[in-house]
Amino acid sequence: MPQTFADAFRIRHSARAKRLRLVVKPGLVELVAPLAANERQAQDFLARHRSWAEKKLHEMAAHQTGAAHISLSAATSLPWRGKEIPLTILDEPRRNARVELSDEACVIRLPATTLGAAREQLLDRALMTAAQKRLGVRIDYWIQRHAARYGLYPRATRIKRMKSRWGSCGPRNDLNINLLLAFVPDGVLEYVVVHELCHIRERNHGPAFWQLVALHLPEYMQQRRWLKTHGSALLQRFC
Description:
Strand order of the largest sheet: 4-5-7-6
Helix content: 40-55%
Order of helices and strands: HEEEHEEEEHEEEHHH
Structural class: alpha/beta
Number of strands: 10
Oligomer: single chain
Distance between the termini: 14 Å
Protein backbone atom coordinates (compact mmCIF):
# COMPACT_ATOMS: atom_id res chain seq x y z
CA MET A 1 0.00 0.00 0.00
CA PRO A 2 1.34 3.47 -0.80
CA GLN A 3 2.90 5.09 2.26
CA THR A 4 2.46 8.75 1.31
CA PHE A 5 -0.40 10.92 0.11
CA ALA A 6 1.55 11.78 -3.05
CA ASP A 7 1.93 8.10 -3.92
CA ALA A 8 -1.75 7.40 -3.34
CA PHE A 9 -3.11 10.45 -5.19
CA ARG A 10 -4.32 10.63 -8.79
CA ILE A 11 -6.70 12.74 -10.87
CA ARG A 12 -9.35 11.18 -13.09
CA HIS A 13 -11.38 13.25 -15.56
CA SER A 14 -14.91 11.99 -16.15
CA ALA A 15 -17.53 12.98 -18.70
CA ARG A 16 -20.22 11.93 -16.20
CA ALA A 17 -18.92 14.04 -13.31
CA LYS A 18 -20.86 17.23 -12.66
CA ARG A 19 -18.61 18.53 -9.91
CA LEU A 20 -15.23 17.94 -8.32
CA ARG A 21 -15.16 15.20 -5.69
CA LEU A 22 -12.65 13.10 -3.79
CA VAL A 23 -12.90 9.32 -3.61
CA VAL A 24 -10.79 7.55 -0.98
CA LYS A 25 -10.14 3.80 -1.16
CA PRO A 26 -7.46 1.66 0.51
CA GLY A 27 -4.18 2.94 -0.92
CA LEU A 28 -5.84 5.40 -3.30
CA VAL A 29 -7.05 9.01 -3.21
CA GLU A 30 -8.78 9.92 -6.47
CA LEU A 31 -9.88 13.40 -7.46
CA VAL A 32 -12.72 12.99 -9.95
CA ALA A 33 -13.03 16.08 -12.12
CA PRO A 34 -15.52 17.13 -14.82
CA LEU A 35 -13.99 17.57 -18.27
CA ALA A 36 -14.56 21.31 -18.02
CA ALA A 37 -12.61 21.70 -14.78
CA ASN A 38 -9.18 23.29 -15.12
CA GLU A 39 -6.04 22.54 -13.12
CA ARG A 40 -6.38 25.58 -10.88
CA GLN A 41 -9.89 24.57 -9.83
CA ALA A 42 -8.74 21.03 -9.16
CA GLN A 43 -5.77 22.17 -7.05
CA ASP A 44 -7.89 24.60 -5.03
CA PHE A 45 -10.44 21.86 -4.34
CA LEU A 46 -7.69 19.45 -3.29
CA ALA A 47 -6.15 22.03 -0.95
CA ARG A 48 -9.48 22.50 0.85
CA HIS A 49 -10.13 18.79 1.31
CA ARG A 50 -6.65 17.26 1.55
CA SER A 51 -6.62 16.93 5.34
CA TRP A 52 -9.91 15.00 5.24
CA ALA A 53 -8.60 12.69 2.50
CA GLU A 54 -5.35 12.04 4.38
CA LYS A 55 -7.31 11.16 7.51
CA LYS A 56 -9.52 8.69 5.62
CA LEU A 57 -6.49 7.14 3.92
CA HIS A 58 -4.81 6.56 7.29
CA GLU A 59 -8.01 5.13 8.79
CA MET A 60 -8.32 2.60 5.98
CA ALA A 61 -4.68 1.61 6.35
CA ALA A 62 -5.22 1.07 10.09
CA HIS A 63 -8.27 -1.12 9.47
CA GLN A 64 -6.30 -3.28 7.06
CA THR A 65 -3.42 -3.83 9.47
CA GLY A 66 -3.52 -7.43 10.57
CA ALA A 67 -6.31 -8.29 8.15
CA ALA A 68 -4.15 -10.29 5.78
CA HIS A 69 -5.78 -12.69 3.36
CA ILE A 70 -6.16 -16.24 4.68
CA SER A 71 -6.69 -18.96 2.09
CA LEU A 72 -9.98 -20.78 2.41
CA SER A 73 -8.22 -24.13 2.65
CA ALA A 74 -6.44 -22.92 5.81
CA ALA A 75 -9.53 -21.37 7.42
CA THR A 76 -11.55 -23.06 10.16
CA SER A 77 -14.42 -20.58 10.21
CA LEU A 78 -16.38 -18.41 7.82
CA PRO A 79 -18.18 -15.08 8.29
CA TRP A 80 -21.83 -15.63 7.44
CA ARG A 81 -24.59 -13.07 7.82
CA GLY A 82 -22.61 -11.25 10.47
CA LYS A 83 -21.26 -14.10 12.60
CA GLU A 84 -18.46 -16.66 12.37
CA ILE A 85 -19.62 -20.20 11.61
CA PRO A 86 -17.48 -23.37 11.56
CA LEU A 87 -15.98 -24.25 8.18
CA THR A 88 -15.16 -27.88 7.40
CA ILE A 89 -13.44 -28.93 4.17
CA LEU A 90 -13.52 -32.61 3.24
CA ASP A 91 -11.63 -34.38 0.44
CA GLU A 92 -13.76 -37.22 -0.88
CA PRO A 93 -13.87 -39.64 -3.84
CA ARG A 94 -16.26 -37.49 -5.87
CA ARG A 95 -16.22 -35.70 -9.23
CA ASN A 96 -17.69 -32.34 -8.26
CA ALA A 97 -17.55 -29.96 -5.33
CA ARG A 98 -20.55 -29.78 -3.01
CA VAL A 99 -21.35 -27.06 -0.47
CA GLU A 100 -23.65 -27.55 2.51
CA LEU A 101 -24.24 -24.04 3.84
CA SER A 102 -26.57 -23.07 6.66
CA ASP A 103 -26.71 -20.29 9.23
CA GLU A 104 -24.89 -22.57 11.67
CA ALA A 105 -22.10 -24.22 9.68
CA CYS A 106 -20.50 -24.69 6.27
CA VAL A 107 -19.22 -28.00 4.93
CA ILE A 108 -17.47 -28.10 1.55
CA ARG A 109 -16.80 -31.48 -0.05
CA LEU A 110 -14.09 -31.50 -2.73
CA PRO A 111 -12.77 -34.13 -5.16
CA ALA A 112 -9.73 -35.68 -3.51
CA THR A 113 -7.87 -35.64 -6.81
CA THR A 114 -7.92 -31.80 -7.01
CA LEU A 115 -4.66 -30.44 -5.57
CA GLY A 116 -2.64 -27.25 -5.19
CA ALA A 117 -3.82 -24.03 -6.80
CA ALA A 118 -6.61 -25.84 -8.65
CA ARG A 119 -8.02 -27.00 -5.31
CA GLU A 120 -7.99 -23.49 -3.90
CA GLN A 121 -9.72 -22.12 -6.99
CA LEU A 122 -12.38 -24.84 -6.91
CA LEU A 123 -12.95 -24.22 -3.21
CA ASP A 124 -13.42 -20.49 -3.75
CA ARG A 125 -15.68 -20.99 -6.77
CA ALA A 126 -17.86 -23.53 -4.98
CA LEU A 127 -18.32 -21.33 -1.92
CA MET A 128 -19.06 -18.19 -3.91
CA THR A 129 -21.59 -20.00 -6.11
CA ALA A 130 -23.46 -21.24 -3.05
CA ALA A 131 -23.26 -17.82 -1.41
CA GLN A 132 -24.56 -16.08 -4.53
CA LYS A 133 -27.67 -18.26 -4.70
CA ARG A 134 -28.58 -17.44 -1.13
CA LEU A 135 -27.69 -13.77 -1.51
CA GLY A 136 -29.98 -13.43 -4.53
CA VAL A 137 -32.96 -14.54 -2.45
CA ARG A 138 -32.14 -12.02 0.28
CA ILE A 139 -31.67 -9.17 -2.20
CA ASP A 140 -35.02 -9.92 -3.84
CA TYR A 141 -36.66 -9.86 -0.42
CA TRP A 142 -35.31 -6.39 0.43
CA ILE A 143 -36.19 -5.01 -3.00
CA GLN A 144 -39.77 -6.24 -2.69
CA ARG A 145 -40.00 -4.76 0.78
CA HIS A 146 -38.74 -1.28 -0.17
CA ALA A 147 -39.20 -0.65 -3.90
CA ALA A 148 -42.97 -0.15 -3.94
CA ARG A 149 -42.99 2.54 -1.26
CA TYR A 150 -41.71 5.28 -3.58
CA GLY A 151 -41.71 3.50 -6.92
CA LEU A 152 -37.98 2.69 -6.86
CA TYR A 153 -38.02 -0.29 -9.21
CA PRO A 154 -34.69 -1.45 -10.69
CA ARG A 155 -34.64 -2.64 -14.29
CA ALA A 156 -32.37 -5.53 -13.35
CA THR A 157 -30.23 -6.69 -10.44
CA ARG A 158 -26.80 -8.26 -10.83
CA ILE A 159 -24.53 -9.80 -8.23
CA LYS A 160 -20.85 -9.18 -8.89
CA ARG A 161 -17.63 -9.78 -7.02
CA MET A 162 -16.26 -6.26 -6.64
CA LYS A 163 -12.96 -5.23 -5.08
CA SER A 164 -13.84 -1.85 -3.60
CA ARG A 165 -17.55 -1.06 -4.01
CA TRP A 166 -20.51 -2.55 -2.21
CA GLY A 167 -23.03 -1.60 -4.86
CA SER A 168 -23.91 0.74 -7.70
CA CYS A 169 -26.92 1.95 -9.68
CA GLY A 170 -26.44 2.34 -13.42
CA PRO A 171 -27.95 5.06 -15.63
CA ARG A 172 -30.74 2.66 -16.68
CA ASN A 173 -31.55 1.75 -13.06
CA ASP A 174 -29.62 -1.52 -13.09
CA LEU A 175 -28.43 -2.45 -9.60
CA ASN A 176 -25.05 -4.09 -9.04
CA ILE A 177 -24.55 -5.69 -5.63
CA ASN A 178 -21.23 -7.00 -4.31
CA LEU A 179 -21.21 -10.78 -3.86
CA LEU A 180 -19.31 -10.41 -0.58
CA LEU A 181 -22.42 -8.91 1.00
CA ALA A 182 -23.55 -12.52 1.41
CA PHE A 183 -21.29 -12.56 4.47
CA VAL A 184 -22.56 -9.41 6.24
CA PRO A 185 -25.47 -9.02 8.71
CA ASP A 186 -28.93 -8.80 7.16
CA GLY A 187 -29.36 -5.19 8.26
CA VAL A 188 -26.18 -4.17 6.44
CA LEU A 189 -27.32 -5.87 3.24
CA GLU A 190 -30.70 -4.16 3.57
CA TYR A 191 -28.93 -0.79 3.86
CA VAL A 192 -26.86 -1.35 0.71
CA VAL A 193 -29.94 -2.42 -1.27
CA VAL A 194 -31.89 0.62 -0.06
CA HIS A 195 -28.91 2.87 -0.78
CA GLU A 196 -28.80 1.78 -4.41
CA LEU A 197 -32.59 1.85 -4.80
CA CYS A 198 -32.60 5.47 -3.65
CA HIS A 199 -30.13 6.32 -6.42
CA ILE A 200 -32.92 5.54 -8.90
CA ARG A 201 -34.47 8.83 -7.81
CA GLU A 202 -31.48 10.74 -6.42
CA ARG A 203 -28.30 10.26 -8.44
CA ASN A 204 -25.93 11.98 -6.02
CA HIS A 205 -25.29 11.88 -2.28
CA GLY A 206 -26.90 15.21 -1.51
CA PRO A 207 -29.32 15.94 1.36
CA ALA A 208 -32.35 14.76 -0.64
CA PHE A 209 -30.69 11.38 -1.15
CA TRP A 210 -29.99 10.80 2.53
CA GLN A 211 -33.47 11.97 3.45
CA LEU A 212 -34.89 9.32 1.14
CA VAL A 213 -32.64 6.66 2.67
CA ALA A 214 -33.79 7.70 6.14
CA LEU A 215 -37.44 7.36 5.13
CA HIS A 216 -36.76 3.70 4.44
CA LEU A 217 -34.24 3.11 7.22
CA PRO A 218 -34.33 5.70 10.03
CA GLU A 219 -31.30 4.06 11.71
CA TYR A 220 -29.25 3.58 8.53
CA MET A 221 -26.17 5.21 10.10
CA GLN A 222 -25.68 2.14 12.29
CA GLN A 223 -25.37 -0.11 9.23
CA ARG A 224 -23.22 2.43 7.43
CA ARG A 225 -20.82 2.48 10.39
CA TRP A 226 -20.63 -1.33 10.31
CA LEU A 227 -19.42 -1.22 6.72
CA LYS A 228 -16.87 1.48 7.51
CA THR A 229 -15.58 -0.47 10.51
CA HIS A 230 -15.56 -4.01 9.11
CA GLY A 231 -15.80 -3.63 5.34
CA SER A 232 -12.09 -3.31 4.55
CA ALA A 233 -11.24 -6.43 6.55
CA LEU A 234 -13.97 -8.39 4.76
CA LEU A 235 -12.72 -7.30 1.34
CA GLN A 236 -9.18 -8.20 2.37
CA ARG A 237 -10.24 -11.60 3.66
CA PHE A 238 -11.68 -12.58 0.29
CA CYS A 239 -9.24 -10.66 -1.92
